[in-house]
Amino acid sequence: MSNSDNNQILKNTNAQILDEFNASVMFDKELYSQDIKGSIAHSQMLFEQGILSKEDKDAIHNGLLQVKDEIESGKFEFKIEHEDIHMAVESRLTQIIGDAGKRLHTARSRNDQVATDFRLYVQEKSLSIKEQLKEVINTFISVSQNHTTTLIPGMTHLQHAQPINFAYHLLAYANMFKRDYERFESSYERNNYSPLGSAALAGTPHNINRESTSKQLGFTSPTINAMDSVSDRDFALEILFNISTTMMHVSRISEELVTWSSYEFQFVKMSDEYATTSSIMPQKKNPDVPELLRGKTGRTYGNLISLLTVMKGLPLAYNKDTQEDKEGVFDSVKTIEISLKILNEVIKTMHVNIDRMNEACKIGHLSATDLADYLVQKQNMPFRTAYYITKDVVAMANSLNKDISELSIDEIRNSNEQIKDINDEIVMYLDLKSSMNARNSFGGTSTKQTEKQIEILKDWLKNK
């Protein structure tokens, strides 16, 4: 083989590698629906402005709908040489309708086209994730309604602290997911502006109507600076941040589920659908699903950091670097969609071991703070004095191998000379359920306040 033949082979190989490196069609085909929707709106506007004839506009619309049908039916062949979804659709459209298809790109650039397609995708996913979050919040509320009197140890530093009810604990997560919902909602409103018509970076000399395309596509209005419009990816960063924050909350409840379902806790038992047995230990049930939910959070963090890194040094306006903006978003969206769906079912189907939770509340003297509060409020003692008396009562309980809530009035009185005549009503204050219900301040753990929180969340859901 001659040197010229070798050189040609090498040249062809290099060209193929470069085509593959440069192309995005194999992943940005995810945007086919948004691309076709944007093209229909663009061609309609061109017709309204007298730039496109009715015949060409109708041919373009019908051709685009055929392309969409071919993609959705699996008949469409995506090729590397098309480079991206925009050229793939336009090439096939031109094959179907001829020269009319070549008129579609008048008064736009792939820069504003991809910015529009991607923004439409992000906006649509923000809405659908919001709906999933509503379902999750509703499930947490539904489970909570059955456990407003179920005691569970409230913890700090993973140590028993004060008695709370299980509904109160679950509602903490409902509030986290409510904030997540509000973040997606806020991002949607802030980013609901159309880049279409910005062209390459400076607008177009054609007499276009950006208000028309904006309205057709469901945007609030057009963006106001073409250079910013084609280079902005804040909307993609926002959805990645919103997903990462939501997944962090998913991970936190998953960690609790892993802990609660352990032999040491046995607070909950997960449905067999969401736990698996060991491959060599048939007696063992592993919380694989919440572990996976916890693990998948890391990939969403990675996608956010990745795009932040891509964007950090880009000059205005468009740069090819932003081709790296989509795969991470697609991955994070798919991750959160399946994660929220599964979490919803895990919470809905888990069995709550009320007796085990109640027994756990008798470890760690959870109502000790109530004794100190009682001495301050009823005996007018300085808090620090009450604190040390409470330590003596706890020591008495430990010596008798009892929880402080199980002490008799005589045992309490005998623990410290300063309380030898204390009113026997203190026994009621140290009762675990009474201790829980004593925290009746707004936002507190009492059954009354927990029920109020449920109603607040229900009212909020009704308005969404």
UniProtKB/TrEMBL annotation:
Gene3D superfamilies: Fumarase/aspartase (C-terminal domain), Fumarase/aspartase (Central domain), Fumarase/aspartase (N-terminal domain). CDD domains: Argininosuccinate_lyase. GO terms for molecular function: argininosuccinate lyase activity. The keyword Amino-acid biosynthesis applies. Its EC number is 4.3.2.1. GO terms for cellular component: cytosol. Keywords: Amino-acid biosynthesis, Arginine biosynthesis, Cytoplasm, Lyase. It catalyses: 2-(N(omega)-L-arginino)succinate = fumarate + L-arginine. One of its GO terms (biological process) is L-arginine biosynthetic process via ornithine. Pathway: Amino-acid biosynthesis; L-arginine biosynthesis; L-arginine from L-ornithine and carbamoyl phosphate: step 3/3. Its main location: cytoplasm. It is found in: Cytoplasm. The keyword Lyase applies. Residues 366-437 form the Argininosuccinate lyase C-terminal domain. Pfam families: ASL_C2, Lyase_1. Residues 13-302 form the Fumarate lyase N-terminal domain. InterPro entries: Arg_succ_lyase_C, Argininosuccinate_lyase, Fumarase/histidase_N, Fumarate_lyase_fam, Fumarate_lyase_N, L-Aspartase-like. It is an enzyme of class 4 (lyase). Belongs to the lyase 1 family. Argininosuccinate lyase subfamily. This is Argininosuccinate lyase.
